[in-house]
Amino acid sequence: MSVATPATNAINGNGNAAGRQAIAVENIVKRYGDFEAVKGVSFEVREGEIFGLLGPNGAGKSTLIRMMTTLIPVTAGRALVAGHDVTKDSDEVRRMIGVIPQAMTSDPDLTVEENLSIYAKLYSVGRAEREKNIQEVLEAVDLLKWRTAQTKTLSGGMRRRLEIARGLVHNPQIFFLDEPTTGLDPVSRIAVWEMLNNLKKRRNLTMLLTTHYMEEADRLCDRIAIVDHGKLVALGTPVELKRSVPGSNVVEVQFNREDDNWPQRLRALQGVTDVQSQSAGVYRVLTSNGSRTTTQLVEMAASLGEKLTSLSVQNTTLDDVFVHYTGRQLRDEQVKAVNFVMPPRPGVQP
Amino acid sequence: MNRMWAIVEREMRKFFRSPMLMIMSMMLPLVQLIILGNAFGGKIRNARVAIVDKDHGPQAVKVLEACDAIAANIRTFVTIPYADEDTAKEDVRQGKVDAAIIIPEQYSRRVYAGNTPSLGLVVDNTDQFTSSAIEGEMQSLVNALNQPVIQPRLVNNIALKVVELYPYIQYMKFLLSGSIALAMYISVMIGGGMLYIDDKARGVHEGYLVTPITKLELVMGLNIAGAIKAVLSGISLTVIGSLMAGLGTIFHPWAMLQMIILIVGISIAFNGMMFLMMVRVDDPLVPRAMFGVLNTLLFFPSGAIYPIAAFPAWLRGIAFVDPFTYAIHGLQSILLKDGGFTAIRNDLLFLFIFGTGTLLLATPLFKRTL
Asked: Band of the pLDDT at A330, cuts 50, 70, 90?
């Protein structure tokens, strides 16, 4: 596991790694006036991997992806996509990439096929190749029988699949997906994950996606970069990231009454590496030995005459990783996002 | 180039799939043409005029007979006999009658004595159209009464003989040019401006910006599509409006060719103007707010409703730079006067230069990034 790994080798084109790197970002910065949305982020994405940018709303993920896809100018630093500088060689970058924006931008008045055809034309794909590609991507996203349907008649999940097909219709080398499953129901979300995994296997696509769903990042991504307040705070495979958190299990316990001594007592149990207070009487206990800690905890409560309202044991999750590196929970950030007031769009800000 | 046509294709497919834009762009101009075309330009008929005869002499009878002749023939007004002058004036004030003619006491005697006889006319001048019509009719009546019974040997009155170059033009025909230009303006504002900003807000442009399309291709694609929509609106309203107003231009291929070229010029000018105004706008409310303001600012000073010569200098200044002015002048030249290319040459020149100039200004302002 590495944290905020500089991509110097890739930028300079040094060594064998340069040939295998699809994206290399070095100390990239984005400022809107005095506000720094991205603060010197560096990372590399290897060819054929699914790379996730995980973070809460407003962390700077979308700003990062927009800089890499040439949608907004880079304030400082460099980003190479498919070997091309996003600032100096933006047209070449655009030819190499497929982008699925956060919003559903397929035209509702056009048919599925028309949407794909027009995008293929925007990439100057010739007629014969265009027809072949449309057939292939429609098969890949399982929308063949909806080919002539107007987009406005599709469900949310089908529209997202159409967006994915649209991003692939010109056979890009690198695929950027900005929160691809936001707004989808759990079944549609899982269907999209399976489809992306299949696409990766069949086409050897490099994918960079942003998400604030931990499960999505965990199940889909080969490597994950955790972004918070415009900074990259951790980077590695899901397993590496979880391993980097002290304790391999999380015991979540709720006592029937609050007591100031609970944290101290919990820390004294065998294998415990950290204790986090959730709310009155509720604690998350990080431990290297979940079963032993649980047994000791039940014994301790019995000896003190206390009752446990609930008790659960689970493996370390990316949420624990996020808490470890940022000091707060990703779930909390999502709850806050309900009351979040959207700042002006990038580019509109002073 | 193919990428530019992809933008045009997308816009046109949307346009034909949703006929609402075409309907909406023609709805207001057609309603305006029907309502204003029939409401304005007609003559005042059967206004109610009180007549108070305080003389009862033979000359008063001549006045009453002349009034009856007006009521029976031109029908500008009908007379209602009143016994009392004060009641007649009060009824004019209350709107029960539109005017009152007062034949004063001793009127006949004064006529015979040549002692400056006069008739009184009380009008409700809050209604300028009716009062002007009654005044005009009464002036003709008085002029007729003033004619000498025996003509002098030498007549030194000068008569003005008016030669009208064109047949009488109903107001609806006059208004048609304005309606065509207005339909094109609405098409440009809705089909170009509003949809463009809505697409921006929905993120559709974000989808374009990540493709290799160039700034020029994108600007040209959007403007060509907007111009085609405006041309289709313009031609549709020309056909429907001409049939409604009874103009035969659409049946003359040469005049129709001139119309189409002029409509293309108008659509380029309107699109260029709209694109220049919208190129940096992101808020979908802005084009909606601007729609009415621009309509008033550009349509009314153009001469579509009222002659430019009657405007104050500052308003004539707006008319001078307003593409609507040249659109209206050109359309009227073809629809009402059949003036040929010579009559619309300057209008075409202005419209094409204006359209190209605004597009040239807008292109560098167009942002290739968000």
From this structure: low
CA distances from A348 to A87, A262, B369 (A): 19, 50, 11
Tell me which residues of chain A, numbers 132 to 151, contact chain B at a CB-CB cutoff of 8 Å. Answer: 150
Contact residues on chain A for B209, CB-CB shorter than 8 A: 70-71
Task: Please determine, for residue A39, whether its predicted confidence score (pLDDT) is greater than 80.
Answer: yes
On the CB side of B276, CA atoms within 13 Å amount to 14
**CATH architecture of the region A8-240:** 3-Layer(aba) Sandwich (3.40)
| Chain A residues lying within 8 Å of B5, measured CB to CB | 121
**Planar angle of CA B112, B116, B118, nearest 5 degrees:** 95
Local structure of residue A60 (DSSP, 8 states): S
What's the token pair of residue A335? 């709850």
**Mean pLDDT along residues A104-133:** 94
B58: amino acid identity, one letter: P
Residue in A with minimal Cα distance to B198: A105
Residue B14 C-alpha, separation from nearest chain A C-alpha, in angstroms: 6
Residues of B in Cβ contact (< 8 Å) with A97: 210
- What is the total count of domains within chain B? 2
| Inter-chain residue contact B17 with A119, CB threshold 8 Å | no
Domain boundaries, chain A: 8-240, 246-315
* For residues A190-207, average pLDDT: 87
- Are residues B120 and B194 part of one domain? no
* A71 CB-contact burial (10 Å; exposed 0-12 / middle 13-18 / buried 19+): buried
Residue B338 token pair = 């059949």
Tokens of A43: 């990372």
**Residue A332: predicted pLDDT:** 53
Check residue A338 and give its pLDDT: 45
Low-confidence residues of chain B: pLDDT under 70: 41-42, 149-169
Domain that residue B108 falls in? 47-146
pLDDT at residue A341, rounded to an integer? 47
